[in-house]
Amino acid sequence: MSFNPNLYEINTRVWIKQFGKDTKLHSVPSSVWQELADKGMDFVWLMGIWKTNESVIDKYCFEEGLIEDYSRALSDWKRDDVIGSPYSIDRYEPNPILIDPGNLQKLRDMLHSFGLKLILDFVPNHFSADSSLIKTHPNIFLETDFDTFKEDSHTFFVSSQNPNKVFAHGRDPFFPAWQDTIQVNYFNPAAREFMTKIILDLVNVCDGIRCDMAMLNLNNIFENTWGGVLSKTGFKKPEKEFWKIAIRKAKEKRKDFLFIAEAYWDLGWDLQQLGFDYTYDKRLTERLLTGYVSEIKSHLRAEEDYQKKLVRFLENHDEERALAAFGQNKSKTAAIVTSTLLGMHFFYDGQFEGKKIKLPVQLGRAPIEKVNASIKKFYDTLLSITNNKVFKKGKWTFLEALPAWDDDFTYENILIWMWQDENEKRLIVINYTDSTSQTRIKFNVNEYSDKIEFNDLLHNKKYLRSKEEIITIGLFIELKSYESHIFAF
């Protein structure tokens, strides 16, 4: 049986301020955690709890593009609101503003008492450009010569922590370097050992890690990104992938420790083969946004072994808010899709209230936004429906839409799947277009008597339908623009 958990991400440094100036994570009111558990969340990702360096803020956090982002999100932002990226980590010690030393395990254990598990960040690619590790462990970072620095002072830098050496900033090969970071050298065995040790330490204090840009340290990608530098240093491509070794060692220590990969470029399957429990399904998010139903269907016909390890989401701290990106009706329908598929269902703090403003991760204050009553009511209903073991541990089956009658092709607009276990069945039918559409659906109803009652949990309506009709020509469904049914029967 599959386990299809729910993950809730919190932008911790911003979120905690609502509870008062001196509140720490281990003293957040218990009602907060209870409410998340009641909504059916299984994992809480406390994004951004690690120690950062204030010194990088003035150096790197006031570039023109960032200032534009700050003003767009928070019109009255001030210098003190800029607290630096949580992905520019000094070292893997909790930020003392968020939690007192030694209390991380206490926090984890408290979450366990509510049936929640704790996910924390692991940023494999880089540390802060002013990390204290540059002094204590300079050999784990990607180093080059001063000539290279002179040729490209955007990608390479001389660290104030170690002024006799030139290091690379962390980067994605398709974008300019992140200047507030320093690149880890994954072709150096010492760096691999150091990063593996961090993971093994995290096994003791949380239940899993969300691995930022997990594909960047795959051997081929690392070589393609840094080949010119590596040719000067003499480091050779390792025989094995870092993730294969690190995940195996962590699982030997704790079998249920979870690895979640932020992954792009269609590399999710590759990372799953290296041991990741779940990988981002960015492709589905893109297809839901563009709305080509045929592409969504094709995506959902993939092998079950692949799909059950996908992280389904509409928004997170890197994405535009779902309400802003999709619009109200489409965002609701897309949420039904991502909340009722195989795999992990991923929600972001503020999504249930209909927040529309994407906050740059460097800001420590969010704008005040009114709760969208329609979105809140929708999520209250949806989460109460999906908080059922049939969605967590049942069997999922993709069903094909059939024409309602000859020469009508609107059935192609309809998405259909079913969940079932020993005692429960749920039929999900979704019109993912802006026009009214009809379809017929055939599925196994042999165990039922002649009349079958379909209870639409989304709209609290009941329908009586003939078993013979379903078997012979199929259950008839008509749905208006972006309408859905979730039937219990």
What does the model show?
There is one protein chain. This protein has 489 residues and is of the alpha/beta class. The chain folds into two domains: 6-389, TIM Barrel; 395-488, Immunoglobulin-like (Sandwich). The protein contains 19 helices and 23 strands. The strands form six sheets. Strands 1-2-5-11-12-13-14-15 form an eight-stranded parallel β-barrel. Strand 17 and strand 18 (425-431) form a beta hairpin. Helix 12 runs antiparallel to helix 13. The longest helix has 15 residues, at 219-233.
Fill in the keyword field for this structure.
single chain, 489 residues, alpha/beta, TIM Barrel, Immunoglobulin-like, eight-stranded parallel barrel, six-stranded antiparallel beta sheet, 19 helices, 33% helix, globular
- Overall average pLDDT: 96
Give the strand tally: 23
How far from one another are the termini? Answer: 21 Å
Query: What is the strand arrangement across the widest sheet?
Result: 1-2-5-11-12-13-14-15
Number of helices: 19
Q: What is the CATH class name of the largest domain?
A: Alpha Beta
- The H-level CATH homologous superfamily of the largest domain, spelled out, is Glycosidases
Q: Structural class per helix/strand content?
A: alpha/beta
The share of residues in helices is 25-40%
